[in-house]
Every structure is written in C-alpha cells, then in structure tokens.
Design a protein that fits this description.
The protein is mainly α. The protein has 22 helices and 2 strands. It is 73% helix and 1% strand. The longest helix is centred in the first third of the chain and has 29 residues.
Length: 494
C-alpha cells in the first residue's frame, strides 16, 4: 500500500524542509569537494610533499571504481530510498561516508586506502537519491526550475568553501584533510532532526526484490537510455576539470601574470619549482564561485525555456570552455575556459536533474533521480581511465622530463637504450619520476620555468585535451538529435 496519509499538498513556495535539505547537501559537498579537489594530487603527483606518489594508473583505478560505486549504485539505491524512507537512507549514508574519510586518513597502503574510497563512494551513492528524492517531493512544476537552481547553488557554496578549507588543513598535514572532511560530513546527523519527511508515495509493503526488478525494468527503456548515453560523454568531459586539470595546472599552467595583476593572497600560492604560482585548487575554485553568484539568476532566466534546449546550449558552451582551458599554458586562458565551462555547467547540471524529475512516474522520483548519476558514473569512470592513459603517455611533465633525458642521453653522460614505452623510462634512464624534472633542470643548467617551456614546445602536451573535447562534441550532436526526436514523445518532451 502507499502511505498517502503522510503526503502533504505541495505549495508554490519553497518550504522549511527544502532549505534544510539544501543545507545538508551543502555540508556534504563541502566535505566531498574539499577532499576531491586535492586527492588526485595526494595520490599521484610525482613531487607532492607528503603525498603517496603512486602512478597515474593507480589514480585512474581508484577513480574508476570510485565512480562505479558512487554513480551506479544510485540506480538501485534510488528505488530503495523510495521504499524504505529518505531519512533512513541518509542516516546510513552519513555513517559510511565518515568511515571512508577516517580509513583514508590512516592508510598509506593501497588496499586499505582503496577500501576507504569505496566506503565514501557508497555513502555518496546512498546520500544522493535520499536528498534528491526528498527535494523532488517538495517541488512543483511552478517552482522546480528555481528550486533545483537554488539547490545547485547551495551545492556549490559547499564546493567553493571546500578547496580553501582543504588547503588550510593540508598545511597541518594530509591526514587533517580527511579528518576535517569527516567532521563536516557528520554535521548532517543533527540536520536529520530539523525537518519532517514527506512520504514518497511508493508502496511500503513492496519486497526488496520487486523494487530491484522495477529498477532494471524502468532503466532499460530505450528513450531513457538514449538520454543517459548522450549525457555520459558530456560528463566524461566535464569531470576532467576536477580529475585531470589539477595535474595539468600543477605541471604546465603559468599563473604568474594573474598573481601580478590581481591581489592574490600569498597563502594561495606555492613554489612549483618553476616559480611561484597559484595552487590549482584555488584556480579551479573559480568554477564554484561563478556558480554561486550566477546559477540562481541563470535558472530564473531559463525557467520557461525547454529543458532539453537549455541543456544543449550548456553542453556547447562547456565544450568550448574545456578547450580554451587546456590548449595553452596561460593562466588567463585557463580562467577564461573555466568561465565558459561554468556557464555550460549551470545550464546543464540543474536541468538534467529537473528533466528526470519531470519524466519520473508517480512514486518513483528517487528511482529516476538515481538514474541521473549513471552518466556521471560512466563519464567519470571512463574519463579517469582515458585521461590517465593520455597523460601518462603524452602529458605528464615528470614523464616528459624522463623522455627528454632518454632522447638526449648526452645529458646523463652515458648511452640510454629506451624502447619507447613510458613505463620503462625509469629503468632506462635510472631517474625516478620524482627526481626527473629537477635532474633535467640541473643537466641543462636552466631554471624550472625555462625547462617547462622547453618540454611544452618539444612535446605539445596540450594534445591530451583533443580526444576529450571530441567526446564532448559527439555528445552535443547526440543530445541535439534526441531533443528533436523528443518533440514527438509526450512523456519525454520537456
């Protein structure tokens, strides 16, 4: 049976429960992005003080399974949240997330660290449909566009505060980043008592097996699959801002001109061995800052625009942004690219959630909003593998320094026999990834800035962005064709 007695009529205004749910998402995202923006550097940057110094392949494997757990599990947990209650689901998710942060804090061996990341990912997978399903029950067609825009705004308030929060804790030590994020995530235990839950309208007597069968049955609708496929390529490109750009910025981007022109706090800067530059997390935080100040007015401006049309425009703008931010070493071009990327995200991100909320049948809001994570998971998982492979072979500065030494073996004072495989460079040259760049600087008697320019001009590491942008363009074309076809489908034309 459905517990209709607890379902309250939806109001046009945004009620107390809406604001409490948004605040919970803000806490959760503050902790999540505080860690996410620096964890790739912690895992794999060759010269990060106190880092793990593992390979790009190790980083890619962790990110791949992280994405699978975090974004595919909501396919199942969305229906479970509808059936067993949003608050119950959220409580379990908070517990898993805190446990994940704490395990990663104390682990420097691969498998314990990997397990902590999977606990965090699983907790996130439970949290998303619980929060989003509750929100969908508190929004209507009249206030949906603005409501989801405000939700996305508060998400990015958390995301904007997260990087400086993590940067401050990082100065204490890497474990402090994980402990601090666990503490922030735990604040949501108290938030569960601040609002009254509405019923999902789902059948509360339905067995778990039936819930899972319905999950699969609804998922394998051809039209829904086409929509999710179009978004998967786009989110592959999108996630490279957070997963790939930290390495690219640390290795290549020259932000000295930005420092000279703007009042950048000294604590936001770091000596990268090629001069003093802005730390990557603060440059990337422009994304969250722009969303915080612009997403609500943009959501209001496009609230009457067809949802698929707004998403298509966002995808085009974001694709331009990812190219602009990766094809040069200019700090200014990076910021320009992040501007366009962020505008595209503001049009696409809230609208994808709004769209699935509209097409979801009654009693299946969290189930369908669980599906929204599938393209994110596909994109993030495959993107982690693709970007790691591209960067390890054509973009990483430490590897290119090793390659330059192998190809100019007179700098080492001995013959070097290298078979062309980047994985064998350390064996061939006798120089580790951690020491390669400084060894090349010493051998050439040049400073880090000059050697960086030499490697950029010699090997064109910017090419790593071309396949990623090509996937974005393909997704744009796919969504354009889907949007045209959807005009003929009354249940999908929003």
């Amino acid at each position: 049976m459905t517990n209709d007695a607890t379902i309250e009529p939806q109001k046009k205004g945004l009620g107390w429960a809406f604001w409490m749910l948004c605040t919970m998402e803000g806490f959760e995202r503050l902790a999540y992005y505080g860690l996410r923006v620096v964890i790739g550097i912690y895992i794999a940057q060759a010269d990060a003080p106190g880092g793990l110094h593992w390979s790009q392949a190790d980083r890619a494997t962790i990110f791949f399974w992280w994405a699978i757990f975090q974004s595919w599990l909501p396919t199942f947990t969305g229906g479970i949240a509808d059936r067993y209650g949003y608050k119950n689901t959220i409580f379990v998710s908070i517990t898993l997330k805190v446990a994940g942060y704490l395990l990663m804090a104390v682990s420097r061996d691969y498998w314990p660290f990997f397990t902590g990341a999977m606990l965090l990912a699983t907790g996130t997978a439970l949290f998303k449909p619980g929060i989003q399903g509750s929100l969908a029950q508190n929004l209507t067609k009249d206030n949906g566009s603005v409501g989801w825009g405000i939700f996305y705004w508060l998400v990015n308030v958390g995301a904007m505060i997260g990087p400086p929060f993590a940067n401050y804790l990082k100065e204490v030590g890497w474990p402090a980043v994980f402990y601090g994020c666990a503490a922030i995530a735990a604040l949501n235990y108290g938030m569960l008592f601040t609002y009254r839950e509405q019923s999902s309208g789902a059948d509360l007597d339905k067995p778990l097996g039936t819930v899972l069968v319905e999950t699969f049955t609804n998922f394998f609708q051809a039209r829904l699959l086409l929509f999710l496929l179009c978004l998967s390529g786009f989110w592959l490109m999108m996630y490279q801002l957070w997963d790939f750009h930290p390495f690219f910025i640390t290795d290549w981007v020259d932000s000295r001109g930005v420092i000279a022109a703007l009042p950048i706090p000294e604590r936001w800067t770091v000596d990268l061995g090629r001069g003093t530059h802005i730390e990557q997390e603060h440059l990337l935080n422009l994304n969250a800052f722009l969303i915080v100040i612009l997403v609500i007015p943009i959501s209001r401006a496009v609230k009457k625009l067809r949802t698929l049309t707004a998403m298509l425009g966002g995808m085009i703008v974001a694709t331009f942004g990812i190219l602009a931010s990766g094809l040069t070493t200019s700090g200014w071009m990076l910021l320009l690219g992040i501007l366009f990327f962020s505008l595209g995200e503001m049009l696409t991100g809230p609208k994808k959630t709004e769209y699935l909320g509209y097409v979801a049948p009654p009693g299946k809001k969290a189930l369908y909003l669980g599906y929204v994570n599938i393209p994110v998971g596909v994109g993030q998982a495959l993107g982690a593998q693709l970007s790691a492979w591209l960067y390890a072979n054509w973009g990483e500065k430490a590897m290119l320094a090793q390659r330059y030494l192998a190809e100019h073996d007179q700098l080492l004072g001995r013959d070097v026999s290298w078979n062309g495989d980047p994985l064998t460079l350390e064996q061939a040259t006798g120089v580790t990834r951690e020491a390669a760049f400084q060894t090349l600087c010493d051998a050439l008697h040049q400073d880090g800035a000059a050697v960086t320019e030499l490697l950029w001009a010699t090997y064109d590491p910017w090419v790593v962005w071309l396949p990623i942008a090509a996937i974005g363009v393909t997704s744009v074309i796919g969504l354009y064709l889907f949007a045209r076809a959807a005009k003929k489908w009354s249940d999908m034309n929003h």
